[in-house]
Design brief:
alpha/beta; D-Maltodextrin-Binding Protein, domain 2; five-stranded mixed β-sheet; 50% helix; globular
Amino acid sequence: MKSFTRKMATWVVGLACVAGSLAAQAEGRIRIAEQFGVVYLLLNVAEDQQLIEKHAKAEGIDAKVEWIKLSGGSAVNDALLSGNIDVAGAGVGPLLTIWDRTKGRQNVKGVASLGNFPYYLVSNKPSVKTIADFGEKDRIALPAVGVSVQSRILQMASAKLWGDKDYDRLDKLSVAVPHPDATAAILKGGTEISGHFGNPPFQDQELAGNPQAHVVLDSYQVLGGPASATVLYATEKYRNDNPKTYKAFVEALNEAAEFITAHPEQAADIYVKVSGDSRIDRQLLLKIIKSPQVQFKTTPQNTSRWPSSCTGSARSRTSRRR
C-alpha cells in the first residue's frame, strides 16, 4: 500500500510538472488577425522587424507569432470567439459588437489603436454626389455589412440625414467585398458596384486611377475630426494568461509607430514587401504615410462619438442574433 501511495505521489508530481511545462509553453504564442490596407502598417512593421519577438525575448520568452489575413469584421470576430486567433484587427464597429456580446463571458476589450486614418466612400458614378443619390440598383462595397467600421460610419451619416429610425437605410444596398476586389470594380466600372467605402491605399488608388471616381463621404466629417477607426482587441483571458506576451506585443506596436513616423520611406518599402502589393505606386503610398491627416499611434483618439451613435444599433443586432 505504501509503495502504491509513493507511486501515485510520483505520478501526481510528474503530471504537475507536465502541466507547468505546458503552461510555460503557452506563454509566448500569439496569433494576430489583420486585414487589408495601410491602416495595418503598424502590424506590417512589427512583422518585418520581428518586434514582438524582440520584446518577448527581453521578457525571457521565445515568442511564436502567427499572422493571419482575413477580410471583414464579422470574419475576424468569429475567429476570435472560436479561439482561432488571439488578437483581432478590425474597426471600432466590430469591437463594439463583440464587446457587447461578450460582457460577463469572454470580456473582449480593446488593446490599442492602429492610428488615425480618413476613410472615404468613393463612387465612380457621376450622378452620385451624396449618400442620398444612391439608388436601388447601386451597390456599396465594404468589408462587412452592419458590422465593419465603414458600415457603422455609413449608418451614422444615414441617421443624420434621414433620422435615427432609418440609420440602416443603406444596408440593403451594401455588399461585403474585400477591398482589393472592390477597388478593381471601381477602377474598371461597368459593374453593379458603384460605391466603395474603403481605406488607404485602396481609396487613393481609385481616386488616382479613375477620372470619374470622387469622394461621397469622409469619415472625419462624420466623426467630427481625426479618429481611431481601426483597432486591436483581445479576450480578457488571453491577457491574463499571457502577461509577458501581451506586454511584448504592446511595446512592439509602440516601437513600430515610432519607426513609421521617423522612417516613412522604409515603412513604405515594408508595406510593399509584407502586403505583397508590388503594383502600388510608391509615391502614392508615401503620400498617404506622410499625409497630415494620418497619424500612426497606439493611443485611441475621438472614440467617444462611437457609443452614442453606434452602440444602440450594435446591441439591437446582437439581441436579434441571440
